Amino acid sequence: MIDNSQLGVMKEKTPILEVSNLYVTRSNSLVVEHANFTIHQGDYVGIVGPNGGGKTTLILAILNILPRTKGTIRLFGQNIESFSDWEKVAYVPQHAINFDPHFPLAVRELVALGRVNRSNIGRTLKRKDWKAVDESLDFMGISDIADKRIGQLSGGQKQRVFVAKALVRNPEIIFLDEPVVGVDAGTQEKFYKKLSDLNVTRGITILIVTHDLTAVFCRMSKVMCMNRWVNMAEITTALEPDDVLRKAYGEHFHFVFHKHKCERIFEDE
Amino acid sequence: MNEIVEIFRLLEFQFFQHALLGGTIAALACAWVGLFLILRKEAMMGDGIAHTAFGGIALGLFLGVNPILTSLLVSILAVLGISYMRRKGLAQSDSAIAVMLAVGFSAGLIIISLAGGFNVELFSFLFGSILTIDQTDLIIVSILGISTILVLGIFYKELLSITFDEEDARLMGIPVRLLSLAFNLLVAITIVLSIKVIGVILVVALLVLPGLSALQLNLSFKGTTLAAIGFGILSMTTGILLSAIYNVATSGVIVFTAAGIFLFTAIYRRLE
What is the pLDDT of residue A257? Predict the structure, then answer.
């Protein structure tokens, strides 16, 4: 149980990502409009919303990959333009698992690429790097396929490999863009379980774009609904998912909630 | 049996030792650079630069300067030109390469006609003449080859990173544009150093075939790299030995050996 003093500490969690008055335009149309939100350390945020609602664009703007039209983004208290601690940030793009299947790379080699960064240019990876690779493989439960070619993996294995690659640099915040598309339900559940572990045991802040509303409302601490503008809500027992989602998806959507207990859907233990 | 005796006899000659040494360095550099070229889907870059280098050879012969040096200069200018056209959005990669290939090659033709036609020396640069490689050429090949191999060895993991996922590499703070340009310069250097060995027309085979054969084996990246280098050196030495014994065109035999290895690995993949 958490006593009040711990709650006090949790309430004062440091903001990791502050976005204010953000506008992003892509091919002449406004994709993100007036976004204002703050993500704190240890948040586990599900980003939901209709396709084309700007979810991927928002992430790319936060990572400074896409230019923005207006607004400020602060990562770890620094303005994004001058931000330099990219080792703290990991990103698993939507298309990550759609690599060329003939690319000659073993799982272990791919995960090791996660340790390649500005600080070790022109030097070989050290023993501690390979140790981190093995730990990451172990954490994601894929040590047994370490020597397999990445082209020979199943969809679920590919996802776990790419998350292992993202984790190998010990990030403090990780962005995942629809990582479970095209994977069977059982594998998806295991995947969300792994992410919860990461969030709880390592305190890693997670932002995940997903269409899996059950996973969002059962596993995560905040839900961010996006349809050009952003609306964020804390997930509590008092929250009515219907109200939150309607704002993003529009009046014409009809949501059917089966009122399952989350524990029964995700049998963790 | 006679052939083996012949090989040992040849090995005693300095020209033959030079050929084997220069050929091995060129094959190693070509196979390694070529594997990255294949994976970056830029194999035509190799062919484009090689044809542009022809213009540089003609210029060198015309001015009476060592053609390897002038073709190095022209090839580097071609690489810079291609990357400039790409960056400014003037042309896509393949069309930019096509433009440079045509301009470089026709520049060569104009210079040759001004000089009064083809000669034997030009022929040796078109199709290579490794058995006549002299000490100066060997020194140039060694310096260029070893520098290429060193740069590849040092930036191996960064090159792999930008080849596999450029966006992620950029996010990790790896200077993607600088490394891509540096790699393309290595392509130019590798092609130029191979001119004496195999000639501008066939150098693309030495770049592409060993890597392609290695890719058939479904190995890790490290394994594929080592296999490509092994296949490159094997094709080169086999080609030199066979052509010396049977007195046929060296570059032709080198390419045929490399193509034979590719055939074997492709069959192996089918059977696996």
Answer: 63
Residue A265 has pLDDT above 80, yes or no: no
Give the span between the Cα atoms of B231 and B260, in whole angstroms: 10
User: Residue B64: left (phi > 0), alpha (psi -120 to 50), or beta?
Assistant: left
What percent of chain A stands above pLDDT 70?
A: 86
Question: Inter-chain contact B158–A116, Cβ cutoff 8 Å?
Answer: yes
CB-based contact A54:A138 (threshold 8 Å): no
CA distances from B212 to B37, B186, B204 (A): 11, 19, 12
* Burial bucket for residue B216 (CB in 10 Å: 0-12, 13-18, 19+): buried
pLDDT at A8 over 60: no
Q: How many CA atoms lie within 13 A of A178 on its CB side?
A: 16
Q: How far is B143 from chain A (nearest CA, A)?
A: 20
Q: Do B220 and A106 touch (CB under 8 A)?
A: yes
Residue numbers in A near B172 (CB within 8 A) = 86-87, 116-118
Could you identify the residue written with the tokens 């172990």? A138
Cα separation of A162 and A164, whole Å?
5
Cβ contacts of B107 within 8 Å, gap of 6 or more: B55, B58, B59
CA distance A49 to A35: 14
Q: In 10 A of CB A64, how many CB atoms?
A: 17
For B37-95, how does the pLDDT look when each residue is reduced to its tens digit (9 = 90+)?
Answer: 999 988 888 889 999 999 999 999 889 888 889 999 999 999 998 888 888 888 787 88
Please give the ipTM for the structure prediction. 0.87
Which helix (H) or strand (E) element contains residue A199? Answer: helix A185-202
For tokens 């969809």, name the residue. A155
Taken in order B186, B187, B189, B193, the sign of the CA dihedral is positive
Burial classification of residue A11, based on how many CB atoms lie within 10 Å of its CB (0-12 exposed, 13-18 middle, 19 or more buried): exposed
Asked if the model's pLDDT at residue A255 lies above 70, the reply is no
- Asked if B184 and B100 count as a contact pair (C-beta separation under 8 A), the reply is no
Q: Flag whether residue A262 sits within 8 Å of chain B, measured between CB atoms.
A: no
pLDDT in tens, B121-177: 788 888 888 888 888 889 999 999 999 999 999 999 999 999 998 888 888 889 999
Closest Cα of chain B to A207: distance in Å? 17
Cα radius of gyration (chain A):
19
Instruction: State the residue for tokens 């210079």.
Output: B111
Residues of chain A with Cβ-Cβ distance to B166 below 8 Å are none
The one-character DSSP state at A125 is P
Q: What residue of A is the nearest CA neighbor of B151?
A: A122
More confident residue, A28 or B260: B260
**Backbone dihedral angles phi then psi of residue B209, each to the nearest 5 degrees:** -60, -45
Q: Which amino acid is at B166?
A: E
Q: Determine if residue A153 is left, alpha or beta; phi over 0 gives left, psi from -120 to 50 gives alpha, anything else beta.
A: beta
Q: Which of B155, B172, B223 sits opposite A122 (nearest CB)?
A: B155
